[in-house]
Design a protein that fits this description.
Length: 492
């Protein structure tokens, strides 16, 4: 009986151990299958033709003969497209542009320690940049139409997305180049995505119109694209373990290896710094946009007032002098307590804690200054707003309103001095509008209020009243002007 019990106890234990081993083996097999699948899915070394890739990159480096003319033509096409604000034309220009060759050559030569290819790449890169900028400059310098289109302005301020596009575009391009049987569609797609040509065209545009900020911003964007495409090339070539260039002279080989490593580090440092700087700017712009959308736009005016978001500015500065400038227009100004609340609410946004908030509103200035401001605003934005009908209508209506206000105003200071000179008995003069109605219509009548000196004779003041009214009507070209005498608190 004990033996039976022992058998009963042993049998289940042995079965459980066998089952556990089988589950373990199945799990290991599953992991192995997943690992194999991922390895096959993501492996780019197996189907890589290193020699053909190297030869293809080196062949695309030189800029001479046919290649230089293709570059010139593509720059002209891109400049026309940017000038006409045509995205399709710009894309067409990027498809035929041979700008990628020297940049890939720089990245590959540093990765494989090829100093000769590096020298050739840098020389042709410089030729490429100079030729492109000169071509764009000549086009914009002599072409009669030089509007600041949205396509041009979009290439003056890089952000974090431009960095990421350049880096991942460079990765895609080199991987496509390394594959046996190059994927042409990928190369074309990367040429469009990384957008090397528009920044160079914008540099030429900035130089042609004398706007150094445009030129500087566009060149900065081009340098960002160049650095991160070259960096992506360097990393892929290293990952694919391309053979290093060997030199007979061991001392020369060591020197070149050190120089290549130093150059790689020197590229990495500004690349990292640029990424961090652009990333901070992108965070600032994000918080600024959120602040304007959540706090400023919902504000409701009690009267006639409007927030001009398109004319408001968000200015980022690495040194901490960033600011947000808000523009308002209309008779109804934003109260000081509301502005103070907005400044306090900026602390809710991490990137806006020490940012200056400036509020510009026409209602806070006198009518003459407001009219001047709106005129200047309209003229400065006129060329940029040619396709923005709504904004043009807004500015034109505001100009019309302010012109009406201005036309109803009189040079009171000048009028009072002239009246005092011409009428020696005049003691005081005032001016206002009298609103009257006969219940059918309402009129606004310009009314002058005068007080004569006590010693003045009545007969003289009566004559002067008639002469003064006739003079004012002639002087101000307004037959509706009325004049009343103010005596001891009573209008007569």
């Amino acid at each position: 009986m004990e033996n039976n019990l022992n058998q009963d106890n042993i049998t289940p234990n042995s079965n459980e151990g066998g089952g556990s081993e089988e589950v373990k083996k199945d799990f290991q097999g599953l992991l192995g299958s997943v690992k194999k699948f991922l390895s096959e899915l993501l492996d780019i070394r197996t189907n890589t033709d290193q020699q053909a890739t190297k030869e293809a990159i080196i062949a695309d480096i030189p800029f001479k003969g046919h290649t230089s003319w293709i570059l010139i033509c593509s720059i002209f096409i891109a400049s026309i497209g940017l000038n006409a604000n045509s995205t399709a034309v710009v894309i067409g220009a990027m498809l035929i542009s041979p700008l990628m060759g020297p940049i890939l050559g720089i990245g590959m030569s540093v990765a494989i320690n090829d100093i000769d290819t590096l020298k050739r790449s840098l020389k042709n890169f410089a030729v490429m940049v100079v030729l492109s900028v000169i071509t764009a400059y000549l086009f914009y310098r002599f072409f009669p139409l030089r509007d600041e289109s949205s396509e041009l302005l979009a290439r003056t301020e890089p952000d974090i997305r431009d960095v990421l596009i350049a880096f991942f575009g460079g990765l895609a391009l080199v991987i496509a180049r390394a594959k046996k049987g190059t994927i042409a569609s990928v190369i074309f797609g990367v040429a469009i995505a990384t957008a090397l040509m528009p920044p160079l065209c914008t540099v030429g545009f900035g130089l042609a119109i004398g706007n150094w900020e445009y030129a500087r911003g566009a060149m900065y964007l081009f340098i960002i694209n160049t650095i991160f495409i070259a960096l992506a090339t360097f990393l892929v070539i290293k990952l694919l373990k391309f053979p290093m260039v060997r030199y007979v002279n061991s001392q020369r080989r060591k020197l070149i290896a050190r120089l290549a490593s130093l150059l790689a580090v020197l590229v990495m440092i500004p690349a990292g710094f640029t990424f961090y700087s652009v990333f901070k700017k992108s965070l600032f712009n994000r918080d600024a946009e959120a602040f304007i959308t959540e706090k400023i736009e919902p504000y409701q005016f009690s009267g006639e007032g409007k927030f001009l978001k398109d004319f408001s500015e968000v200015v980022y500065n690495d040194e901490g002098n960033s600011k947000i400038e808000l523009f308002f227009m209309g008779n109804d100004g934003v109260p000081d307590n509301v502005i103070a609340t907005w400044r306090a609410q900026m602390a809710e946004y991490k990137q806006l804690k020490d940012v200056k908030l400036a509020v510009v509103q026409g209602s806070r200035s006198d009518e003459a200054n407001e009219l001047k401001y709106v005129n200047e605003l309209y003229e400065s934005q006129k060329s940029m707003l040619t396709s923005k009908d709504e904004k043009i209508q807004l500015l034109e209506s505001e100009l019309m309103r302010l012109n009406q206000i201005s036309s109803n105003q009189i040079p009171f200071h000048e009028i009072s001095l002239e009246a005092k000179t011409n009428y020696e008995n005049l003691d005081r003069i005032g001016y206002a509008y009298l609103i009257s109605t006969d219940f059918a219509k309402t009129d606004s009548i310009p009314l002058f209020e005068v007080t004569w000196k006590k010693e003045a004779k009545r007969a003289e003041t009566v004559k002067d009243m008639i002469k003064l009214q006739d003079w004012l009507r002639l002087r101000l070209s307004n037959k509706n002007i009325q004049i009343k005498e103010y005596t001891f608190g009573v209008l007569s």
